[in-house]
Amino acid sequence: MSPPRDTLAARRALRFGLAGAALAYAWAAWTHDSALNELAVLELGASEAVARGVDRGAAVVLVVAAVGAWFERGRVAWGLAALWMLLQAVAEARLGGAPLVEWEPAAHAARWLAPFALVALVGGRVRRAELLLRVGAAATFAVHGVQALVGVPRFVDLVLLSARRVALAPSEVAVERALVVVGLLDLAAAALVVTTRRRAVAGYMALWGAVTLLARVTAGGWVQWPAAGVRLEHAAAPLALLLLWSPRTRSSP
Q1: Is the pLDDT of residue 27 over 50?
Q2: What is the pTM of this model?
Q3: Phi and psi (nearest 5°) for 53?
Q4: In 3D, which of 168, 162, 145 has the Cα closest to residue 216?
Q5: Most buried of the four, 14, 72, 74, 200, by CB within 10 Å?
Q6: 3-class DSSP state for residue 4?
Q7: DSSP 8-state symbol, 32
Q8: Is the sign of the CA dihedral 229, 115, 252, 245 positive or negative?
Q9: In the chain, what are the domain boundaries?
Q10: Residue 138 has what pLDDT?
Q11: Is the pLDDT of residue 253 over 60?
Q12: Which residues neighbour 183 within 8 Å (Cβ) at sequence distance 6 or greater?
């Protein structure tokens, strides 16, 4: 018996998210020194040549994972892509240099858990996939909610630059106040996505995830597409939940 139509749609959403994120990570690893590269050189004593080789090798694996995602093949590559995403977050946390950066592994949870959710869905383990997606989305939104509440500078700059692109000129104080509201909404969504199965919550998270990734382009121009691409799973993960929580999927055996 074939899976319900909405389960297949959830798989497509995760495939798209993984493919786009993997390609963005691959581009970043091929063209720039990754956070893991910097950590390996600064703290582990690796040579720049070795660290660069790791980046290039990771880029190849990420491209394989992206291509395989379109055909639902290459689960090992998906797992390796997820591991790379997690290691990048750990390296960023270790390197520091920004407020609350030590929470990056949790902030990126939707990215590195989504590939495992896709593996579960392809294997017919819908409940396991749902659990992974709920945990990933909740962790990402919870950390971003706290960061918005305290008004981390990069969030303030993101809003200010995006606003100026559309001829608006809000004050920094107004942006900080708006971020408090955003932070409270993100925290509420994080709590609700793990305690309820409300499609409205998943829909809000998918929409807001899409808005925040597009904000990277509106703030910095199309040159920032990799920064937007690596965040695709912030929208794809809750979108997959929205589809999995459809009445048709819930009523299926």
Answers
A1: yes
A2: 0.93
A3: -65, -35
A4: 162
A5: 14
A6: coil
A7: S
A8: negative
A9: 5-243
A10: 98
A11: no
A12: 144, 145, 146, 147, 148, 149
